[in-house]
Structures are given as structure tokens and as C-alpha cells.
Amino acid sequence: MSEKEKKEMVGYRQQPGKISFSRPGSGGKGPFSEPRDEEMIPESQGGKKEQPWGDHRHDKLITGRIVGKPTSLVDSKWKVTGRAKYGDDIRLPNELIGKIVRSPHHYARVLSIDLSKALELPGVVSIATGDDASNKFGVLPVTKDEHAMAVERVRHIGDLVACVAAEDEATALEAVRLINVEYEILESIHDMKDGLKDSKDPIHDRGEYHIGEANVQKRVFQEFGNIESMQENAVVSHKNNWFFNGVNHAATEPHAVVADWDPSGRLTLYTPQQVPHYVHRALADVLEIPMHQINVHRTFVGGGFGGKSDPFPHEMCASILARKSGRPVRITFDREEVYWINRGRHPSHIEMNLHADKQGRLCGIETDALIDGGAFASFGHVTTYYNGVLHTAPYEIGAFHYTGARVWTNKPASGAMRGHGAVNSRCAVEVGIDDISEKLQVDPISFRLANLLPPNSATITGFRVTSIGMRECLERVMEESGWKEKFRKMPLGHGIGIGCGFFISGSGLPIHWDPNKFPHATVHLKIDMDGGVTVHTGAADIGQGSDTVVAQSVAEVLGLPLDMIRIKSRETDTSPVDLGSYSSRVTFMNANAAISAAMKIREDLLNATSEITDAPVEKLVIGDRRIFRKDDPAVGVSYLEALHKAQEERGALVASGAYRTPPMGRAHKGAAAGLAPAYSFSAYVAEVKVDVETGQTKVEKVWAAHDCGKALNPLAVKGQIIGSCHMGMGQVLSEEMRYGRTGNLMNTDLLDYKIPSIHEMPEVTPIIVESNDPEGPFGAKEAGEGPLLPILPAVCNAVYDAIGVRSNELPITPDRLYKDIEKKCRELKIEEPIDLPSPRLETSKLQKTLEKRAEQHSVRDKERRLKSDIKPYHNGALFGMDPTIPPDEVDESWKVTVIPSKKYLETPRLAGSAWLHTERRKRGE
Amino acid sequence: MKMPPFNLHIPTSIDEAIEIAKDLDSNGDEFDWVAGGTDLLPNYKWHLNSKKNVISLAKISQLTELSETHIGAMVRLQDLADSELTHPVLVKSANSIASIMIRRSGTVGGNICLDTRCYWYNQTEDWRESIDWCHKCDCGTGADCRVIPNQNTLCVATYQADLAPVLMCMGARVHLISISGKREMLLNDFFELDGMKKNKLLPGELLTHITLPEETLQWNGDYQKLRQRESWDFPEAGVAVLWKKDGENLKQLRVATTGLESIPGYHEDISSELVKDWNGRESIKLLSEQIRKAVKPVQNTWYTPSYRRKMVKVLTKRACKGLLGE
């Protein structure tokens, strides 16, 4: 210690031992601060990172440390070393094993439940039935129709009737066998078309809102524009009746839950949930205790994909059994039970009609979607809308008609699954465009490029679209796949196809509250002396990397290495409320909230630095664990010095940041469905080989371009793209929930539910397009769900290119495709499929027109994405309307209608016929 | 999913195994043999006809002998596929079974004696209760067959193993042992048309090994398999075609099928008739058509019966490709 320092050691603060305190804290793993990486600093801030899509409001926060660099997920080491605890890994002292008594009938009234024998079995600790929890719950507040266990009736095979907690699994299973339930069998409904009809015993009763006496859970009617005009102007039309079989998420981890009432009387529920907050609410409803008495602890999640986003009856069961027994109760599903709880993609009948006019414009889309909801509502209210509204972009459309209906049937409930509600109708639209292009004798990519909405525009349904990288996606996949040399030019059995996608980046409306009253996402930060940043967030990491993206955002803004950020996202006790991991909202909303919290800490650090160095705050920049003058980097302080200065009077720095969506959208009924603060876009090209003699399809290569705004973590984005391809390939080629002649689900195991294996997986080339969304965190949008959409139509269209046959049922299993091949052979009077002709393209004059229009639009789009003073652009401009005014204000014949006319009801389409019923309250009942 | 408890017996010699079987039998105790366990244990987890006693063959080293003409019942499928002594067509069929992990555990004997499979049978107990059980595992209810309703005399569950058709074409013989002694028969004669009985094994009888004729290497051929995925899946249809040539002339031709009925089909009657007047491509076409007509699949696996029959034709044609010498 120097003499000077010794002299300075005066005053009571440093009396003890008269020695200097060691400096607490850490600088992360690197001993020296690294120089700023100018390659990662945007041009707008004087760095070298090019910004072809313009600058961004977060540019000034970029320290060049983390964002945009491929980063392994922050929890990956836990997973690869086996240290991660998933639902079934939770072991509490004195735990009991819970098992569920399930209905063996499709639909029945529960007459009596005899528990006596089971209760006598040694080792059985407690048993619960529907009588123990009569309150309803459901993921959407408008459609709560589930009970923890059957109250009065069971609605599908596998529906919960009772549950048992015992000392071990064998005893619990034996007790389940000993419970005798007496049923009165009711007439069950399996074909969703029957759900549209009046029924003696509708599966649910919605009171005054019940639609007729039918099993229609939700119906939607929407018309935008001049509907009559579309067929008048059409020179070619496409019509197809699709059937999409239901698919399940088939996450690796089956559902598992542990419920524990602690000695202070609070419930902790350990569950691999995507949406802990909704479970939190539902538990309070069902158990009739206040929310503050419940701590929902999200374990590691072994795959969600939407299959773990509802509050589930087994979560209620475990809690009820734990309350009754006073001991922790663990329930882990067998794979079969995963299929019984389902919430997978709806089986759907979709009628898709597309019309194009002589200028190669999409003058109309008419869609009718009947979707099979199974026994409960789940997210179905939203799904019914999404089947329509989510295919109104990225194209400019002359007029749009949609009728949708969701019916209850006696099957496991359908719900939200990756690409929620958008996947099936998107497939139908994109295949339709392929067909329309063929009829117009134009290249389908040229057709798309000449019909895209520009950046900063409004769709026909009034969605506010900000950034659009659709054109770039199309151009990139066309280029990289060698499209022009291959399309309609390859030999029989070898084909190439294109498909596009459009998806929400976060749902605009929080389901449970007014977005003006409470934010969508909130993030808390806390930094103490050690310098490490504790992030409290309720966003659920389900393997998609949400912990990582939050850590990255905070680390970037504060110029810290990732190992200084610790994410606490597991418990509702410590996490601020977050809506959870669905609707591709987490990166957009949660990272925005994290950035705004980090900005507050950043400000504190800059002020402290300014105080120490006398440099004005505006001159300061943050580098790697150092804050310094931009014009004189020698003047500055370390991160820790600044931090400790800022802490002098306050102790630990804490900050809260939140995100809410801006007001947007139209005002018609259902206008909020599909509204999002931003949208993702994607275009895939798939190359396939089809064995024309067997109908077997092998996807050889996929070029997958996705506009995610900005890849905060390119490694994770690529992972999502490749994973989406795998999942979508399952739905298009082999996965289906297959119901047998008796209405039973025949393939409740992973041998017969055919997820593609590594052998089926093609080589995927992920292409990231960064359209720099103005409101996204650092420009980012979603990458978790949108990338799934295009693979289905791309494969369907490639199959057509290969053999000239279009299927209208997914999955295109070989037996189905072979039937279509035989049909085609009969039509063409060909004996052997090997002699089928390959489709060829001879372009019409329209091709040049489209190419020219696409070029003009390309210039228009670049202007619109870079200029700040752009005029509004409403869908309809392509058809000669004034783009700056909403079309209904320009043209009287351009209408928004949400109730069908009498004329429509004379000849309704399939789902549209749901409107033939009158609601009970309107019948005066 | 929990297996019902059972007593596991682990003999180290064939004699000891037979002795244990005898003891159990004399006490009226039912039992199953277990080899690799990849078929039996999943079925036990599903509570499918599980027994209170299981005799494991895993420690009987006598059963693992492998040569060009002798294949022990306990030879692991992957070892069979990897061995240089194995006929190439048998290698191809062995390599197509399930996945590599299952092949490392599954055995030749187990594959030949594979339990028949059916959508209405290979399900959990809860599931089967929901259809009021089925003939193959009726839990004492005398339930009907769910594939062909209103009959409970014949089980139509499908035999979906890959080795049998190839071995049948090779003229393999199975060697059995029981307390009453040893016996052997052609593999072609081993199977018995009923999804429950499946084969001629008597209670307490054990398949020890199979033998192949010395001349096997003079045979060429192919095995073609139909399935949804290139891994894991059982054959929805499988066709083995083997032939012997005398110079350029086709001398003998044998065809066997699997995955189509309760037992594998052996169709030498059809093929030898055609060999008499063999005419290359034309004959192959006739053969394929006749094999298609000879099989009668039912609706109890992943693909529809009509598709499986049509594909038998394609598979036969493809398996014969080597005959064309192109």
C-alpha cells in the first residue's frame, strides 16, 4: 500500500483493521476488456455493420458483444450433461404416485363411482373424483368448459373420471382397476360433419349462447371487399376440398406434474408448462384459493410445441390429491395419455377457392374451414379465426370470404400446435397458387413476386404489417435452389416445389386483460455488488431458447458477457407475470421488455460514469465491461466501477421493463384475431423424389428462407428452421392421429404415430432474411412457428412437379398418393404409372407482365422500407384503389361483413352451414 | 407404463432351461421364453398375455453359434447382419429390421417367433378395455375379433418379421427341443395359420437354431420391404425372391412373403410352375401378379390391405430385377 493510499484510509468507514476492502464483483471469464467489435456496430452508430433495411431504434444500444452471433443456449450444458430436471425428475420427500381413472367410453353419463374396494387397498392414500372440484376452467376465459375430473359425463375415451394417490405406482394402478364406475352410454359423435347437426345430447351446453342444439363450439363469417366482383373478374379459378388429419405435438417428454402443499399452506406445482400464468389462474379457480397461495414452478420442458400450453386436468388432479393427502403427489403420463390430452392440430375439412384475373392478380380467396375440436374448447375459439385470417397475407387480395366452424366431437381435444390455425389453410392457399399459376401458364414464384404487399401496409383484414422480407425470401430460395433450371424440367418422379408462409409474431391481445391495463410481458433486473445480472422473467423456456434471448438482450445492452447474466424464469413467486410461450410472442415481447429494463440500468451506469469521469453522458459508449468516451476511449471506467458508484446510495440496482402492443387493427367482430405487432414471412423450396410405382415420397433437399427480422441468435434461428421442417414434414408425409372404424384412436404410441426418422430428413439449407422490424427487439421477429408453414405446400407442390398428381388429403402417405396415381392413370388411359407424363411449363404472355410488375414492386418496396415519411398503403392498391385510404371509405361496394346474408344461407358451404342454427338467446330461450 | 411382475429364470444351458420349463409346466405355471426381449417386453408393458414366469435364454452360450449353415437362436440380429458368413440377401433383410439399437438386442430366434401384430391388439390395457378386448387377448371375455367382427375362432393378427421369408426361400430348417426330445422341420412347415398359435412350437418347446443347406451360396436373390419409414417400422409387406441359375438358365425360383397374413407365405408352387417356361420380363410380370393374388392382408396395420396387395406386385417385380441381368 502506497503512502498516499495509507493517508486516504481515514474515517469511520475504513476503521476495521485499517485495511482496504477487496473489490467485490466479477468481470466475467475474460480478464481484459475486449475492444469494441466494429463489424457488429451498426452503420447508424458509426460502426461497420451494413444496414440495407435502414436503421433501428435500438441501434444505439448495440455494444457489438452478443446479438447476432451464433450462441449456444444458456441452459444447453444442463441438458447435455443430464443435470436438467424435467417434470418427472422432480422428487420430493415422502411423495405419492398419482394415477388417473379414465373413461373407456366415447361419451357417457357417469352414474356412480364405487371407491370402496380401492380405498381398502393397503397403500392407497387418497382418491378424488369430480365431486372434489366442480369449478370449470379452460385456457381461454370465454370458453371454460373443462373440469378436473368428470362432472356428470365423460366426453372421450381417456377423459378423466377419478384419480388415486398411492405409496407406489403398482398400488396406484391396482387401485385404478378396483374403482368401479357405472356409465350410461350416450350416442357419440365422431365425424365432424355430424357436429354441425342438432343433437339429442350436445357434448357441452353453452346456455343462452348455445348454437341451435348442435355441437358447434365456434363459428366465424367474414367477408372483405366486393365478393361478387371476384368471380366476375376471374379468368382462372382453383377449387379444392382438402382433408387434413389431426396431428399431435409428440414432444419427447410426456406430461408430468408434481404438486406439493408446503407446511405454510401454500401449493407449489412443478410442471413442464409453456404458460405457467394460465395454470396459475386456473388452479386458483379450481382449488378456490387465492393466486398468491400458489407457486407454479416450471421445470425444464422436454418439448412443448403448443402441447403444454393449456392448464391441464391432471395438474388439478395432482393438486387435489396433494391437498387431500398432505403429501407431494407426482403424476407422469404414459405416451397414450399424451394422445388423450392431445391439443394437437385440428383435423380439418378445408374448401379453398382462389381466383385470379387476367392481369395475374389474386382477385379473390374464398375459404371454408370446418375444424374438429374434439371434446373441449381449448384454444379453439382462436383457431377458428386463424384458419381464415392468417392467409390474408403476404399477398394483395381483391376480396376475401371466410367461413369457419369448430365443432365438438367425442375425441381428445384439439388445440394449439406450432403454427396454430395457420398451417392447414396456408397449405391449401399455397397449393392453390401453384395451380392458378399453372392455369395462367406462369412461373409460381413470378406470380407470388408480382402480388406481394409492400412493407408498412395493411392487409385486406386490416392487419398492420410493418417489415416484410417476403420478396427477399423468394428471391433467395429461387437462386439457391436452382429453381429456373429445375422447375417443370425434371424427369418423372423428380420434382421441385415452392411454398410460402406468414405468421404472427406475438398475439396482439393478451387473452385475460385489456392490453392498455396491463403489459404483455414484464422483466425485472437486479444487479448487486458482484456485477452479475439477475433477470426475473416469466417467459417459459421450452427449449426454444427464451432464457438465452433474454440473457443476450440484457448482455448486449450492458456490454457484458453472457456468463454474467443469470436467468430466473422458473417460479411465479419470483417472476413477473408473462403470458408464456405461445403465439410466437416471447422474443418479440419479452426481449423488448428486457431491453427496456436494461436501458434503465444502462442509464444508471452512464450517469455514474459521467460523475466519475466528468464526461457528458451523450459522449459515453459501452464496450466490453467498460464504459468510456467514444471520442477518447482512454477516458472511462470499468463496468464494476460504474456499478459501485451507482450503488452508493441505493445498494443493488433494480429495474423493471415492460412491453405492450401498440393500438392497431380494425374494429369489426373478430378483428383482434390475428393481430400482431409484427409478422414473419418465409419461403421454402423443396426437392423431392416420388416413387411412382409405390407412391413413396422422399424429400431430398429443402432451401428454407425465413424473415425473422433480425437473428439475435442465428444458431437458434437455424435450429428452429430445421426443426420446423422436420415437424412439418411429419404432417405432410406420415404423421396423423388415425381414428379407426369404432372411433378409437388407433396409434397412441410412437411406433404407429409416424414421426419422420433421421433417414427421412432431407438436407435443409436455412437462409436467414433480416428485414429489421422497427418494433422488434434489435429488429427481431419470431422464428419458432412461421418456419413450419411453408414446408407442407412446398412438398405438395414438389410432388405435383414430380408426377403431375395433386393430393387433397394430408399426410400424403404412399397408399393415399398411390390411389391418386392410379386415378390419374385411369384418366389418361395409361397402364403403368411409370408412363405418366411430367408436368411442363410453356409460359404465356402474362409471365413477362408479372416479371415487370415484380421489378416495379421491388423498387416500391425498397423505398417503403427505407423512407420514413411514407404514405399509408392499404390492400387494394394493386386493384387500382387509393392506397392511402382504407378501401371501405373509398368504395361503397367494398364491405366488411361478419354475419351471413339470407342469400348466403340458401347455399352455404360446409362450415358456413353452422350459421343455419340460431343461438338459443336469439330464439328467446 | 408398468410391467406386471414376473419371476425371471436365467438358465445357463439348454438342459437347465428345459428342466425349468418342465418344473413350471408340472406345477401348472405358465411361462414365456425371452430372448432379446424387444418383442416380449413391450407386450408385457401393455399387459398382453403376460405370464407369471419368464425364462431368459440370454446366458445360454450354446445358442449363439453362427456359421454359414448354422444360426443359433440367440444370435443378435446385428451380429447376423455384420457377419461375413451371412448370405447377402439375409444380410439385407436383417439390416432392415427395426433400428440398430433394437437389432443389437433382438435375436434371430426371437424374430422368427415374433408375436403377430394387430392394431386392435398392440395397445395398452386401458385402450383394449375401451373396445371390450379382442379375440387374441380376450381377458376371459370370449371377445370377438375386432378386425373381422362376429367371429372368434381365428386370429388374423399379422406376422411382421423380416427374416422368415428369406430363410424359407433358402430352405432353412428349424431345430426344436423340449422335454420330449429334439425335432426339426423345414421352416416352411413351422408356421401354423392362426395369429395366436402362429407356429408349431409346443408348450415348453424351444427353438435352438436353424440350419441352412450347404448349397445356399449358389442362390441369388433379393428382399424387398414396404414400410412408411426407413427405420423402426415393421414390414407392411415383404417379398423375398431367391433363384438358382445353371449358367444363363434359371433353374429354380422361390418366393416367400411376410407382413401380409398371420404367417409368412411360401409360394414355390407359383414360382416353380413359371420357371418351366421362363420368359424374363413377361414371366416376372406374371409371377408378380400371381403373388399379389396369393396374399390376403386384412385391415390391421398402417397401410390399407388393397395397397399392400398392390405393392406386393411391385416388390416382387423389384426383387426379381437381378434375374433380368441388366
What descriptors fit this protein?
A: alpha+beta, Aldehyde Oxidoreductase, domain 4, Aldehyde Oxidoreductase, domain 3, 3 domains, 7-stranded mixed beta sheet, 23 helices, 30 strands, B: 326 residues, alpha+beta, Enolase-like, domain 1, 4-stranded antiparallel beta sheet, globular
User: Per CATH, which architecture of the largest domain in chain A?
Assistant: 2-Layer Sandwich
Low-confidence stretches of chain A: none
Order of helices and strands of chain B: EHEHEEHHHHHHEEHEEEEEHHH
Distance between the termini of chain A: 91 Å
Stretches of chain B where pLDDT is under 50 for at least 5 consecutive residues are none
Q: Number of helix segments of chain A?
A: 23
What fold name stands as the CATH topology of the largest domain in chain A? Aldehyde Oxidoreductase, domain 4
Task: Please give the CATH architecture of the domain at 218-324 in chain B.
Answer: 2-Layer Sandwich
Can you identify the CATH class of the largest domain in chain A?
Alpha Beta
The CATH homologous superfamily name of the largest domain in chain A equals: Aldehyde oxidase/xanthine dehydrogenase, molybdopterin binding domain
Structural class of chain A: alpha+beta
Condensed summary:
The complex is a heterodimer of chains A (925) and B (326). Chain A has 925 residues and is of the alpha+beta class.
How would you sum up this structure, described in words?
The complex is a heterodimer of chains A (925) and B (326). With 925 residues, chain A is an alpha+beta fold. Chain A folds into three domains: 44-82 and 525-659, 2-Layer Sandwich (Aldehyde Oxidoreductase, domain 4), CATH 3.30.365; 94-187 and 249-341, Aldehyde oxidase/xanthine dehydrogenase, a/b hammerhead (Aldehyde Oxidoreductase, domain 3, Alpha-Beta Complex); 356-509 and 667-897, Aldehyde Oxidoreductase, domain 4. Helix content of chain A is 27%, strand content 21%. The radius of gyration of chain A is 29 Å and the shape is globular. The N and C termini of chain A lie far apart (91 Å). The mean pLDDT of chain A is 95. Chain B is an alpha+beta fold and 326 residues long. Chain B has a domain at 218-324: Enolase-like, domain 1. Chain B contains twelve helices and eleven strands. Chain B has helices spanning 14-26, 40-45, 77-82, 88-95, 100-105, 108-112, 125-130, 163-170, 187-190, 268-275, 280-294, 305-319; strands spanning 7-9, 31-34, 53-56, 70-72, 173-178, 181-186, 206-211, 219-226, 237-246, 249-258, 265-266. In chain B, the strands form three sheets. Chain B has a four-stranded antiparallel beta sheet. A four-stranded antiparallel beta sheet of chain B has the order 8-9-10-11, sandwiched between helices. The longest helix of chain B has 15 residues, at 280-294. The radius of gyration of chain B is 20 Å and the shape is globular. The mean pLDDT of chain B is 96. The A-B interface holds A 102, 104-105, 157-158, 169-170, 173, 334-336, 693-694, 734, 740, 742, 744, 746-748, 751-752, 754, 756-760, 813-815, 818-819 and B 1-2, 5, 99, 119-120, 122-124, 126-127, 129-131, 146, 226, 228-233, 302-304, 307, 310-311, 314.
